[in-house]
Amino acid sequence: MGLFFIGNERLARQWLDQYGLLALFCILVLEGAMLLYFAPSESLVPLGVTLLAEGPGDLDNIAGVILVAVVGATIGQYALFLLAKRGGREYLLGKRWFRIDEDQLDRFDGWFQKWGRIVVPVSNALLFTRGMLTVPAGFAEMRDWEFVVLSALGTLIFQSWLAAAALYAVELGFLGFL
């Protein structure tokens, strides 16, 4: 991004064209596993759509950005789900990289216990709760395929509305600086 604003715009465009989707995928795997806190998913797909698509009519690239985001985030969430399923509560709470405290985890467990499996796609489709029910789903030993499908469904909804919002902002001229 710095190359666009202070450096060589042509080089930045070349790197985006070559590595943009791969970078987006890798970042979303980390974000899905709750290992990336400086780049929230709320900013990733809008930037991806804005920088990697040629505008609202470029449906192939828009769909590509959304697909890469869904697959990357789902892989990351599945990795965290497996750690929760196999490692358990105390294992995760003992890890420094796991930044959810016991009170928060109790609250998420309560949501999962109260509402069941439907909270996985619902939480993935909403701001500020994305991925939070991944760990309780693992603790509950939800079936792997069921978790992956529900996680991907919620993520697809979330990333699609983020892409639509970004495209609308582009149409209105709010993101003209990108």
Description of the molecule:
It is built from 9 helices and no strands. Helix content is 73%, strand content 0%. With 178 residues, the chain is an all-alpha fold.
Range of helix content: over 70%
One letter per element, helices H and strands E, the order comes to HHHHHHHHH
Mean pLDDT: 85
Number of strands: 0
Quaternary structure annotation:
single chain
Structural class: mainly alpha
Write a concise synopsis of the structure shown.
With 178 residues, this protein is mostly helical.
Give structural attributes.
178 residues; mainly alpha; elongated
Topology readout:
Elements: H1 2-6, H2 9-32, H3 41-52, H4 59-87, H5 89-93, H6 102-115, H7 119-124, H8 134-139, H9 144-172
Helix pairs in contact: 2-3, 2-4, 3-4, 3-9, 4-9
